[in-house]
Design goal:
Low-confidence stretches of chain A: 1-17
CATH topology of chain A: Arc Repressor Mutant, subunit A
Strand order of the largest sheet of chain A: 4-3-5
Number of helices of chain A: 6
Largest interface: A-B, 38 and 38 residues
Distance between the termini of chain A: 19 Å
Number of domains of chain A: 1
CATH architecture of chain A: Orthogonal Bundle
Oligomer: homodimer
CATH class of chain A: Mainly Alpha
Order of helices and strands of chain A: HHHHEEEEHEH
CATH superfamily of chain A: Winged helix-like DNA-binding domain superfamily/Winged helix DNA-binding domain
Mean pLDDT of chain A: 86
Strand content of chain A: 15-25%
Largest sheet of chain A: 3 strands, mixed
Shape of chain A: globular
Helix content of chain A: 40-55%
Number of strands of chain A: 5
Amino acid sequence: MSREPAPPAGGTETGGAASLAFAAHDHARCAGGALRRAEALVAERGVRLTPVRRRALEILLEAHRAMGAYEVLERLAADGFGRQPPVAYRALDFLVEQGLAHRIRRLNAFAACTLPGGAHSPAFFICTGCGAIAEAPGEAIRASVEAAAAALGFTVERASIEAAGTCPACREGRA
Amino acid sequence: MSREPAPPAGGTETGGAASLAFAAHDHARCAGGALRRAEALVAERGVRLTPVRRRALEILLEAHRAMGAYEVLERLAADGFGRQPPVAYRALDFLVEQGLAHRIRRLNAFAACTLPGGAHSPAFFICTGCGAIAEAPGEAIRASVEAAAAALGFTVERASIEAAGTCPACREGRA
DNA sequence: TAGGCAGCGTTATGAGATAACATAGTCCCC
DNA sequence: GGGGACTATGTTATCTCATAACGCTGCCTA
Protein backbone atom coordinates (compact mmCIF):
# COMPACT_ATOMS: atom_id res chain seq x y z
CA MET A 1 0.00 0.00 0.00
CA SER A 2 1.55 3.19 -1.13
CA ARG A 3 -0.67 5.67 0.56
CA GLU A 4 1.25 6.02 3.77
CA PRO A 5 4.68 5.37 5.20
CA ALA A 6 3.87 1.90 6.61
CA PRO A 7 3.09 2.08 10.29
CA PRO A 8 4.78 -0.39 12.64
CA ALA A 9 2.75 -3.53 12.09
CA GLY A 10 0.59 -4.95 14.82
CA GLY A 11 0.47 -2.17 17.36
CA THR A 12 -2.71 -0.60 18.62
CA GLU A 13 -2.82 2.77 16.97
CA THR A 14 -4.78 5.37 18.77
CA GLY A 15 -3.04 8.38 17.31
CA GLY A 16 -0.86 9.47 14.45
CA ALA A 17 -1.15 11.64 11.40
CA ALA A 18 -3.80 9.58 9.70
CA SER A 19 -6.66 10.48 11.97
CA LEU A 20 -10.19 10.34 10.69
CA ALA A 21 -10.95 13.89 11.63
CA PHE A 22 -8.46 16.58 10.91
CA ALA A 23 -8.81 18.01 14.39
CA ALA A 24 -7.07 16.37 17.34
CA HIS A 25 -9.35 14.55 19.77
CA ASP A 26 -9.58 11.67 22.20
CA HIS A 27 -9.61 8.57 20.02
CA ALA A 28 -10.26 6.02 22.74
CA ARG A 29 -13.26 7.98 23.90
CA CYS A 30 -14.82 8.48 20.50
CA ALA A 31 -14.22 4.80 19.70
CA GLY A 32 -15.92 3.69 22.88
CA GLY A 33 -18.88 5.90 22.15
CA ALA A 34 -19.15 4.57 18.63
CA LEU A 35 -19.14 1.00 19.89
CA ARG A 36 -21.92 1.71 22.33
CA ARG A 37 -23.96 3.39 19.64
CA ALA A 38 -23.40 0.41 17.38
CA GLU A 39 -24.70 -1.97 20.00
CA ALA A 40 -27.79 0.09 20.58
CA LEU A 41 -28.39 0.32 16.85
CA VAL A 42 -28.19 -3.39 16.09
CA ALA A 43 -30.37 -4.21 19.08
CA GLU A 44 -32.96 -1.84 17.75
CA ARG A 45 -32.81 -3.33 14.29
CA GLY A 46 -32.79 -6.95 15.40
CA VAL A 47 -29.52 -7.78 13.67
CA ARG A 48 -26.57 -9.34 15.42
CA LEU A 49 -23.25 -7.75 16.22
CA THR A 50 -21.45 -11.09 16.42
CA PRO A 51 -17.89 -11.42 17.73
CA VAL A 52 -16.16 -11.11 14.34
CA ARG A 53 -18.32 -8.19 13.35
CA ARG A 54 -17.79 -6.47 16.62
CA ARG A 55 -14.07 -7.06 16.50
CA ALA A 56 -13.88 -5.78 12.93
CA LEU A 57 -15.60 -2.60 14.02
CA GLU A 58 -13.24 -2.26 16.97
CA ILE A 59 -10.28 -2.67 14.65
CA LEU A 60 -11.50 0.10 12.39
CA LEU A 61 -12.24 2.30 15.36
CA GLU A 62 -8.85 1.69 16.95
CA ALA A 63 -6.96 2.33 13.75
CA HIS A 64 -9.04 5.40 13.20
CA ARG A 65 -8.17 5.55 9.55
CA ALA A 66 -9.11 3.77 6.37
CA MET A 67 -7.95 0.15 6.28
CA GLY A 68 -7.87 -2.39 3.48
CA ALA A 69 -9.91 -5.55 3.94
CA TYR A 70 -6.76 -7.65 4.07
CA GLU A 71 -5.32 -5.46 6.76
CA VAL A 72 -8.45 -5.93 8.84
CA LEU A 73 -8.28 -9.63 8.07
CA GLU A 74 -4.75 -9.88 9.45
CA ARG A 75 -5.87 -8.42 12.73
CA LEU A 76 -8.91 -10.65 12.88
CA ALA A 77 -6.75 -13.69 12.22
CA ALA A 78 -4.36 -12.58 14.96
CA ASP A 79 -7.33 -12.53 17.29
CA GLY A 80 -8.24 -16.10 16.48
CA PHE A 81 -10.84 -15.54 13.80
CA GLY A 82 -10.68 -17.04 10.33
CA ARG A 83 -7.81 -16.05 8.11
CA GLN A 84 -9.48 -16.18 4.70
CA PRO A 85 -10.65 -13.07 2.83
CA PRO A 86 -14.39 -13.75 3.05
CA VAL A 87 -14.18 -13.53 6.81
CA ALA A 88 -13.12 -9.92 6.61
CA TYR A 89 -15.31 -9.02 3.65
CA ARG A 90 -18.41 -10.41 5.29
CA ALA A 91 -17.84 -8.58 8.51
CA LEU A 92 -17.04 -5.36 6.69
CA ASP A 93 -20.02 -5.70 4.38
CA PHE A 94 -22.24 -6.11 7.38
CA LEU A 95 -20.85 -2.98 8.98
CA VAL A 96 -21.29 -1.02 5.77
CA GLU A 97 -24.87 -2.25 5.35
CA GLN A 98 -25.68 -1.16 8.85
CA GLY A 99 -24.05 2.20 8.33
CA LEU A 100 -21.44 1.50 10.98
CA ALA A 101 -18.59 1.73 8.49
CA HIS A 102 -18.06 3.15 5.04
CA ARG A 103 -16.28 1.94 2.00
CA ILE A 104 -13.83 4.41 0.52
CA ARG A 105 -13.67 3.39 -3.10
CA ARG A 106 -10.82 5.63 -4.03
CA LEU A 107 -8.66 3.75 -1.58
CA ASN A 108 -10.23 0.31 -1.81
CA ALA A 109 -10.56 0.60 1.92
CA PHE A 110 -12.99 0.76 4.80
CA ALA A 111 -13.36 3.19 7.67
CA ALA A 112 -15.58 3.22 10.73
CA CYS A 113 -18.37 5.72 10.56
CA THR A 114 -17.54 8.75 12.65
CA LEU A 115 -20.87 10.48 12.39
CA PRO A 116 -23.44 9.12 14.81
CA GLY A 117 -27.05 8.90 13.81
CA GLY A 118 -29.07 6.93 11.37
CA ALA A 119 -29.34 7.65 7.67
CA HIS A 120 -26.72 9.98 6.41
CA SER A 121 -25.01 10.60 3.15
CA PRO A 122 -21.41 11.29 4.02
CA ALA A 123 -18.71 12.95 1.97
CA PHE A 124 -15.08 11.93 2.40
CA PHE A 125 -12.04 14.12 2.22
CA ILE A 126 -8.82 12.25 1.67
CA CYS A 127 -5.49 13.97 2.20
CA THR A 128 -2.96 12.87 -0.40
CA GLY A 129 -0.19 14.14 1.83
CA CYS A 130 -0.68 12.16 5.02
CA GLY A 131 -3.52 9.77 4.25
CA ALA A 132 -5.87 11.31 6.77
CA ILE A 133 -9.55 11.01 6.04
CA ALA A 134 -12.39 13.16 7.25
CA GLU A 135 -16.01 12.25 7.02
CA ALA A 136 -18.36 15.18 6.71
CA PRO A 137 -22.12 15.39 6.59
CA GLY A 138 -23.09 15.41 2.95
CA GLU A 139 -26.71 16.43 2.98
CA ALA A 140 -26.08 19.60 0.99
CA ILE A 141 -23.91 17.75 -1.51
CA ARG A 142 -26.44 15.00 -1.74
CA ALA A 143 -29.11 17.55 -2.54
CA SER A 144 -27.09 18.90 -5.45
CA VAL A 145 -26.50 15.35 -6.69
CA GLU A 146 -30.22 14.72 -6.52
CA ALA A 147 -30.86 17.89 -8.47
CA ALA A 148 -28.47 16.83 -11.24
CA ALA A 149 -30.05 13.36 -11.25
CA ALA A 150 -33.53 14.78 -11.53
CA ALA A 151 -32.51 16.60 -14.69
CA LEU A 152 -31.68 13.19 -16.21
CA GLY A 153 -34.70 11.43 -14.83
CA PHE A 154 -32.38 9.32 -12.73
CA THR A 155 -33.27 8.07 -9.26
CA VAL A 156 -30.33 8.05 -6.84
CA GLU A 157 -30.04 5.21 -4.35
CA ARG A 158 -26.49 5.60 -3.13
CA ALA A 159 -23.95 8.29 -3.86
CA SER A 160 -20.19 8.19 -3.30
CA ILE A 161 -18.67 11.57 -2.72
CA GLU A 162 -14.94 11.37 -2.29
CA ALA A 163 -12.55 14.26 -2.63
CA ALA A 164 -8.77 14.01 -2.74
CA GLY A 165 -6.73 16.99 -1.70
CA THR A 166 -4.73 18.49 1.11
CA CYS A 167 -5.64 18.65 4.78
CA PRO A 168 -4.96 21.77 6.85
CA ALA A 169 -1.93 20.26 8.57
CA CYS A 170 -0.25 19.23 5.33
CA ARG A 171 -0.94 22.50 3.62
CA GLU A 172 0.73 24.37 6.45
CA GLY A 173 3.65 21.98 6.44
CA ARG A 174 2.83 20.71 9.92
CA ALA A 175 2.46 17.10 8.92
CA MET B 1 -18.02 -9.38 -14.74
CA SER B 2 -21.37 -9.57 -13.13
CA ARG B 3 -22.68 -6.13 -13.87
CA GLU B 4 -24.24 -6.86 -17.22
CA PRO B 5 -25.49 -9.78 -19.26
CA ALA B 6 -22.26 -10.32 -21.22
CA PRO B 7 -22.55 -8.85 -24.71
CA PRO B 8 -21.44 -10.96 -27.69
CA ALA B 9 -17.67 -10.65 -27.50
CA GLY B 10 -15.79 -8.78 -30.16
CA GLY B 11 -18.49 -6.94 -32.03
CA THR B 12 -18.58 -3.22 -32.56
CA GLU B 13 -21.27 -2.01 -30.27
CA THR B 14 -22.83 1.23 -31.17
CA GLY B 15 -26.10 0.72 -29.39
CA GLY B 16 -27.72 -1.27 -26.66
CA ALA B 17 -29.07 -0.64 -23.21
CA ALA B 18 -25.79 0.47 -21.70
CA SER B 19 -25.50 3.80 -23.43
CA LEU B 20 -23.55 6.57 -21.81
CA ALA B 21 -26.39 9.02 -21.97
CA PHE B 22 -29.84 7.91 -21.04
CA ALA B 23 -31.33 9.52 -24.11
CA ALA B 24 -31.09 7.81 -27.49
CA HIS B 25 -28.73 9.43 -29.99
CA ASP B 26 -26.39 8.78 -32.88
CA HIS B 27 -23.41 7.02 -31.35
CA ALA B 28 -21.21 6.93 -34.41
CA ARG B 29 -21.62 10.62 -34.85
CA CYS B 30 -20.89 11.60 -31.26
CA ALA B 31 -17.88 9.26 -31.23
CA GLY B 32 -16.48 10.84 -34.37
CA GLY B 33 -16.88 14.27 -32.89
CA ALA B 34 -15.17 13.24 -29.67
CA LEU B 35 -12.23 11.83 -31.58
CA ARG B 36 -11.81 15.05 -33.51
CA ARG B 37 -11.96 17.06 -30.34
CA ALA B 38 -9.37 14.80 -28.78
CA GLU B 39 -6.99 15.33 -31.66
CA ALA B 40 -7.36 19.07 -31.47
CA LEU B 41 -6.82 18.97 -27.74
CA VAL B 42 -3.60 16.96 -27.74
CA ALA B 43 -2.19 19.05 -30.59
CA GLU B 44 -2.85 22.13 -28.54
CA ARG B 45 -1.19 20.66 -25.47
CA GLY B 46 1.80 19.21 -27.25
CA VAL B 47 1.16 15.65 -26.10
CA ARG B 48 0.88 12.71 -28.44
CA LEU B 49 -2.19 10.71 -29.28
CA THR B 50 -0.19 7.66 -30.34
CA PRO B 51 -1.78 4.69 -32.11
CA VAL B 52 -2.46 2.68 -28.93
CA ARG B 53 -3.84 5.68 -27.13
CA ARG B 54 -6.00 6.64 -30.04
CA ARG B 55 -7.28 3.12 -30.46
CA ALA B 56 -8.04 2.85 -26.75
CA LEU B 57 -10.09 6.00 -26.98
CA GLU B 58 -11.89 4.68 -30.05
CA ILE B 59 -12.68 1.48 -28.21
CA LEU B 60 -14.21 3.37 -25.31
CA LEU B 61 -16.13 5.59 -27.69
CA GLU B 62 -17.43 2.68 -29.73
CA ALA B 63 -18.51 0.69 -26.70
CA HIS B 64 -20.10 3.80 -25.32
CA ARG B 65 -20.20 2.43 -21.83
CA ALA B 66 -17.82 1.80 -18.97
CA MET B 67 -15.23 -0.88 -19.74
CA GLY B 68 -12.73 -2.63 -17.52
CA ALA B 69 -9.07 -2.21 -18.39
CA TYR B 70 -8.76 -5.87 -19.28
CA GLU B 71 -11.68 -5.62 -21.61
CA VAL B 72 -10.04 -2.72 -23.40
CA LEU B 73 -6.82 -4.70 -23.41
CA GLU B 74 -8.46 -7.60 -25.20
CA ARG B 75 -9.59 -5.34 -27.97
CA LEU B 76 -6.21 -3.69 -28.23
CA ALA B 77 -4.55 -7.07 -28.44
CA ALA B 78 -7.00 -8.12 -31.14
CA ASP B 79 -5.90 -5.07 -33.08
CA GLY B 80 -2.26 -6.09 -32.90
CA PHE B 81 -1.15 -4.08 -29.89
CA GLY B 82 0.49 -5.57 -26.83
CA ARG B 83 -1.49 -8.03 -24.77
CA GLN B 84 -0.15 -7.29 -21.30
CA PRO B 85 -2.06 -5.21 -18.73
CA PRO B 86 0.33 -2.24 -18.64
CA VAL B 87 -0.42 -1.59 -22.30
CA ALA B 88 -4.05 -0.89 -21.51
CA TYR B 89 -3.41 0.84 -18.21
CA ARG B 90 -0.89 3.21 -19.71
CA ALA B 91 -3.15 4.19 -22.56
CA LEU B 92 -6.12 4.60 -20.23
CA ASP B 93 -4.11 6.57 -17.71
CA PHE B 94 -3.05 8.90 -20.47
CA LEU B 95 -6.64 9.42 -21.56
CA VAL B 96 -7.73 10.09 -18.01
CA GLU B 97 -4.88 12.55 -17.43
CA GLN B 98 -5.87 14.42 -20.55
CA GLY B 99 -9.49 14.43 -19.55
CA LEU B 100 -10.47 12.35 -22.57
CA ALA B 101 -11.74 9.53 -20.41
CA HIS B 102 -12.83 9.05 -16.83
CA ARG B 103 -12.28 6.38 -14.30
CA ILE B 104 -15.43 5.10 -12.64
CA ARG B 105 -14.20 3.85 -9.30
CA ARG B 106 -17.42 2.21 -8.30
CA LEU B 107 -17.08 -0.09 -11.29
CA ASN B 108 -13.30 -0.31 -11.56
CA ALA B 109 -13.83 0.79 -15.10
CA PHE B 110 -13.17 3.52 -17.63
CA ALA B 111 -15.44 5.49 -19.91
CA ALA B 112 -14.77 8.01 -22.64
CA CYS B 113 -15.58 11.54 -21.67
CA THR B 114 -18.86 12.59 -23.21
CA LEU B 115 -18.73 16.23 -22.25
CA PRO B 116 -16.63 18.32 -24.58
CA GLY B 117 -14.60 21.17 -23.26
CA GLY B 118 -11.61 21.55 -21.03
CA ALA B 119 -11.66 21.39 -17.24
CA HIS B 120 -14.82 19.95 -15.88
CA SER B 121 -15.79 18.15 -12.76
CA PRO B 122 -18.24 15.52 -13.88
CA ALA B 123 -20.72 13.51 -11.88
CA PHE B 124 -21.61 9.97 -12.89
CA PHE B 125 -24.95 8.28 -12.65
CA ILE B 126 -24.79 4.52 -12.83
CA CYS B 127 -27.94 2.48 -13.38
CA THR B 128 -27.86 -0.70 -11.33
CA GLY B 129 -30.55 -2.15 -13.58
CA CYS B 130 -28.96 -2.00 -17.00
CA GLY B 131 -25.43 -0.74 -16.39
CA ALA B 132 -25.95 2.48 -18.30
CA ILE B 133 -23.85 5.42 -17.23
CA ALA B 134 -24.52 9.09 -17.69
CA GLU B 135 -21.97 11.80 -17.22
CA ALA B 136 -23.37 15.11 -16.11
CA PRO B 137 -21.76 18.49 -15.53
CA GLY B 138 -20.89 18.63 -11.86
CA GLU B 139 -20.06 22.25 -11.29
CA ALA B 140 -22.89 22.78 -8.84
CA ILE B 141 -22.04 19.58 -6.99
CA ARG B 142 -18.40 20.50 -6.99
CA ALA B 143 -19.27 23.83 -5.43
CA SER B 144 -21.09 22.13 -2.57
CA VAL B 145 -18.13 19.78 -2.09
CA GLU B 146 -15.82 22.78 -1.94
CA ALA B 147 -18.07 24.39 0.62
CA ALA B 148 -17.98 21.32 2.84
CA ALA B 149 -14.20 21.12 2.40
CA ALA B 150 -13.75 24.76 3.34
CA ALA B 151 -15.47 24.09 6.65
CA LEU B 152 -12.72 21.54 7.40
CA GLY B 153 -9.88 23.65 6.07
CA PHE B 154 -9.41 21.06 3.34
CA THR B 155 -8.29 21.91 -0.18
CA VAL B 156 -9.92 19.81 -2.87
CA GLU B 157 -7.87 18.73 -5.87
CA ARG B 158 -10.03 16.04 -7.38
CA ALA B 159 -13.51 14.90 -6.48
CA SER B 160 -15.29 11.69 -7.47
CA ILE B 161 -19.02 11.99 -7.56
CA GLU B 162 -20.66 8.71 -8.44
CA ALA B 163 -24.26 7.89 -7.84
CA ALA B 164 -25.83 4.45 -8.18
CA GLY B 165 -29.52 4.19 -8.86
CA THR B 166 -32.11 3.66 -11.55
CA CYS B 167 -32.23 5.22 -14.99
CA PRO B 168 -35.50 6.42 -16.49
CA ALA B 169 -35.83 3.41 -18.80
CA CYS B 170 -35.38 0.87 -16.01
CA ARG B 171 -37.68 2.64 -13.65
CA GLU B 172 -40.44 2.55 -16.24
CA GLY B 173 -39.77 -1.08 -16.99
CA ARG B 174 -38.65 -0.32 -20.52
CA ALA B 175 -35.22 -1.85 -20.15
C1' DT C 1 25.86 10.52 -34.63
C1' DA C 2 25.63 10.21 -29.65
C1' DG C 3 22.86 11.16 -25.74
C1' DG C 4 18.46 11.59 -23.71
C1' DC C 5 13.81 10.56 -23.43
C1' DA C 6 9.13 9.11 -24.37
C1' DG C 7 6.64 5.26 -25.51
C1' DC C 8 5.67 0.34 -26.06
C1' DG C 9 6.36 -4.27 -25.09
C1' DT C 10 7.53 -7.93 -21.93
C1' DT C 11 7.66 -10.95 -17.37
C1' DA C 12 6.37 -11.33 -12.85
C1' DT C 13 3.92 -10.23 -8.91
C1' DG C 14 0.93 -7.73 -5.79
C1' DA C 15 -3.59 -6.44 -4.13
C1' DG C 16 -8.57 -6.65 -3.89
C1' DA C 17 -12.75 -9.44 -4.19
C1' DT C 18 -15.96 -13.31 -4.65
C1' DA C 19 -18.02 -18.04 -5.82
C1' DA C 20 -18.99 -22.30 -3.93
C1' DC C 21 -19.23 -25.46 -0.42
C1' DA C 22 -19.00 -27.51 4.52
C1' DT C 23 -19.82 -26.96 9.30
C1' DA C 24 -21.78 -24.98 13.32
C1' DG C 25 -24.66 -22.08 16.08
C1' DT C 26 -29.52 -19.93 16.85
C1' DC C 27 -34.27 -19.49 16.73
C1' DC C 28 -38.68 -21.08 16.90
C1' DC C 29 -42.36 -24.05 16.53
C1' DC C 30 -44.28 -28.06 17.91
C1' DG D 1 -36.14 -31.33 23.69
C1' DG D 2 -36.33 -32.64 18.60
C1' DG D 3 -36.36 -31.06 14.07
C1' DG D 4 -36.44 -27.68 10.44
C1' DA D 5 -35.21 -23.19 8.73
C1' DC D 6 -32.15 -19.75 8.87
C1' DT D 7 -27.99 -17.20 9.90
C1' DA D 8 -23.27 -17.08 10.44
C1' DT D 9 -18.48 -18.70 10.15
C1' DG D 10 -14.97 -21.13 8.20
C1' DT D 11 -12.62 -23.22 4.23
C1' DT D 12 -10.53 -23.83 -0.78
C1' DA D 13 -10.05 -22.10 -5.06
C1' DT D 14 -10.25 -18.69 -8.32
C1' DC D 15 -11.03 -14.33 -10.43
C1' DT D 16 -10.40 -9.49 -11.51
C1' DC D 17 -7.85 -5.37 -11.15
C1' DA D 18 -3.38 -3.05 -10.95
C1' DT D 19 1.58 -2.11 -10.88
C1' DA D 20 6.77 -2.85 -10.45
C1' DA D 21 10.74 -3.54 -13.05
C1' DC D 22 13.24 -4.03 -17.07
C1' DG D 23 14.68 -3.94 -22.18
C1' DC D 24 14.06 -2.29 -26.83
C1' DT D 25 12.93 1.14 -30.31
C1' DG D 26 12.42 5.31 -32.43
C1' DC D 27 12.49 10.18 -32.30
C1' DC D 28 14.41 14.64 -31.26
C1' DT D 29 18.14 17.57 -30.47
C1' DA D 30 22.67 19.17 -29.67
